[in-house]
Amino acid sequence: MDKHFTNAQRAEVLTQALPYIKKYNGEVVVVKYGGNAMINQELKEQVMEDIVLLWLTGVKIVLVHGGGPEISEMMNKLGKKAQFVDGLRVTDKETVDIVQMVLAGKINKTLVNHIQVKGGKAMGLSGMDGHLIEAKIKDERLGFVGDITNINIQPVIDLMEKGYIPVISTVGCDRESNAYNINADTAAARIAGALGAKRLIMMTDIAGLLKDKYDPSTLIPHITVKECNQLLQGGTIQGGMIPKIECCIDAISHGVKKAIIMDGRIPHSILIELFTDEGAGTMVEGD
């Protein structure tokens, strides 16, 4: 906290946060973590601090992460060129091995370690552990890119009941022991739905849903599923925002109370969203 704050001002901040702390105590919040907040070291430290603070206040926090840039970086090191079709990574057998190595190995364990260094208790899972994320081939052109067929949520529940923060990498599997590259937004939405989460927070590199994608001042702070569908049909929602909005709608249809598309570039944006009136992005809720 700013050194120029008086003790009385610090106390006032804590007092104002109390109703929100009570509101979320014992509730499940799923955070989809990626984008700039994952690459920028300072932002990464702040996100980990936020996660641990939420956990210490009694929030049942679940962290779901991607890692596209690091997968591409590893592919380059191994002399393999990344290919994309309709924004999705073409994933042959060699590439899915790289995805598994980077997501379930390096990134997952690094995040677990960061949380523990900040004072939390974390345990890493991939979607292959306990068949958490079952999948099938989404499109033959994409290879081992998975379409989720089932979520076995019990391993996540078991970890939360033991007091851990589950950290989940989005590598799926099938009954024939194949591994699949799963879109992290989609996986977070389905996991949040299976948990009946109070909130799904999707961290992005933009302010949220904008009426004009070139003008951050046109942020839509609150929108219903019905309004989302109208904007999708009308073409207002375009490009990379389409799958994010569709994931929010999917999460709500599976039982999530509210989904937030949040600007992960803002320091401590998770705390601003959950513990203040201000919010930090676009909130999507049922009609």
Structure overview:
Strand 6 (133-137) and strand 7 form a beta hairpin. This protein has ten helices and 14 strands. By secondary structure, the protein is of the alpha/beta class. The chain has helices at 7-24, 36-39, 41-56, 68-77, 93-117, 154-161, 184-195, 225-234, 241-253, 269-275; strands at 28-33, 60-65, 84-85, 88-89, 122-126, 133-137, 146-151, 165-169, 171-173, 179-181, 199-204, 222-224, 258-263, 281-285. The strands form four sheets. An eight-stranded mixed β-sheet has the order 5-8-2-1-11-13-14-12, with helices on both faces. It has a two-stranded antiparallel sheet with strand order 3-4. It has a single domain, classed as Carbamate kinase, CATH 3.40.1160. The N and C termini lie far apart (38 Å). The protein is globular.
Task: Give the structure's gist in a few sentences.
By secondary structure, the protein is of the alpha/beta class. The chain has ten helices and 14 strands. The protein has one domain (24-285): Carbamate kinase.
Number of strands: 14
Overall mean pLDDT stands at 89
Strand order in the largest sheet: 5-8-2-1-11-13-14-12
Distance between the termini: 38 Å
- Rg computed from alpha carbons, rounded to a whole number of angstroms: 19 Å
* Total discrete domains: 1
- What is the CATH architecture descriptor? 3-Layer(aba) Sandwich
Compressed to H and E, one letter per element, the order equals: HEHHEHEEHEEEHEEEHEEHHEHE
